[in-house]
Design a protein that fits this description.
The chain is of the alpha/beta class. The protein contains 13 helices and eight strands. The protein has an eight-stranded mixed beta sheet with strand order 3-2-4-1-5-6-7-8, with helices on both faces.
Length: 323
């Protein structure tokens, strides 16, 4: 779907003009999570003479504290106990390798690209609470799609937040994407209606819809998202083809609650996990995938455009366990 991202998924490369691969940036971005999760487990097992229930209970506690969630932590430890009982692990030092295997199995070995329309325009609706980096994510995603040679249109359906339309227009201009908007305070569904008509007539490959940020507990605002879904669905067959929820990784387990509410309201199909470089709570990427079945489509590990990439589970886990 995105040629540069696919290249990264295969070999961890991808230029940022400074000779630093995306794998290295991912390692840097996951430093806090690595120290808070892998580093603490390594410290815990170091010097232990044997694997016993006390050690495994301590590891389980660390997993929960690292925002993997209770259910994920419990499953991981139960699997480790089985492997110990089967004689597959005989020393504490081997625990790290098994832990890596378990986390990779939970998040999945292969990434899942965004779903494309069978023909015509692929519509990606982007939702999330305020402050997650939603509008910025739309701009970066537009740039990523344009870099692969796609014709991209961006619709400013966040018509309430001050300067949101102007902010998105700047991003669209930088990305070389077409831009559709109305005045601040306009009906978001009307913006989407215009954008769908324009995308169809101009034969756009991707239509990205930025929506107003909202608390996941506000039912009236969720109803507005449902209206946007209905409008674009009437205008473009099968739309929206993706509903991406942007989650700020620093929120930890609250991000799981957000994802659950949005999934129920607007059938979220994928996750964009932002600000991984600023938190030790990157474990929610695994937690949301396991608990809600929502795949992580993209991750953000920095402010630069190239720091938003398609999520590659193996690359993520490798970076998490790298020294």
């Amino acid at each position: 779907m995105i040629e540069m991202a696919n290249k990264i998924a295969n070999d961890g490369s991808g230029g940022n003009g400074k000779g630093v691969s995306f794998l290295e940036r991912l390692k840097q971005g996951l430093k806090k999570t690595r120290e808070g999760l892998v580093g603490r487990v390594e410290t815990l097992v170091r010097g232990r003479a044997k694997i016993d229930d006390d050690l495994l209970d301590d590891i389980e506690e660390l997993l929960i504290e690292s925002d993997l969630g209770v259910s994920v932590a419990t499953e991981v430890i139960e699997n480790l106990k089985k492997k110990v009982a089967e004689g597959r692990v005989t020393s504490p030092d081997a625990v790290m390798g098994l832990l890596k295997e378990e986390l990779l199995a939970l998040v999945g070995e292969e990434g899942e690209s965004i779903r494309a329309a069978a023909g015509g325009t692929t519509v990606i609706m982007v939702v999330g609470v305020n402050g997650t980096g939603k509008t910025t994510t739309v701009g970066k995603l537009a740039a990523l799609l344009r870099a692969s040679g796609n014709r991209v249109m961006v619709a400013a359906a966040d018509t309430f937040r001050a300067a949101a339309i102007e902010q998105l227009e700047v991003w669209a201009r930088r990305a070389g994407a077409e831009f559709i908007s109305q005045q601040q305070g306009s009906d978001p569904a009307a913006v989407v209606y215009d954008a769908a008509a324009a995308a169809r007539s101009r034969k756009v490959d991707y239509l990205l819809i930025d929506t107003a940020g909202r608390l996941h507990t506000k039912s009236n605002l969720m109803e507005e998202l449902k209206k946007i879904r209905r409008v674009v669905g009437r205008e473009l067959e099968g739309a929206p083809h993706e509903v991406l929820l942007v989650v700020d990784a620093t929120t930890g387990q609250n991000g799981v609650a957000q994802a659950s509410r949005f999934k129920d309201a607007v059938d979220v199909t994928g996750l964009v996990l932002t600000k991984l470089d600023g938190t030790a709570k990157g474990g929610i990427a695994i937690s949301i995938r396991k608990e809600l079945g929502i795949p992580v489509r993209f991750i953000g590990v920095g402010e630069a455009v190239e720091d938003l990439r398609e999520f590659n589970p193996r690359l993520f886990i490798d970076a998490l366990f790298s020294s």
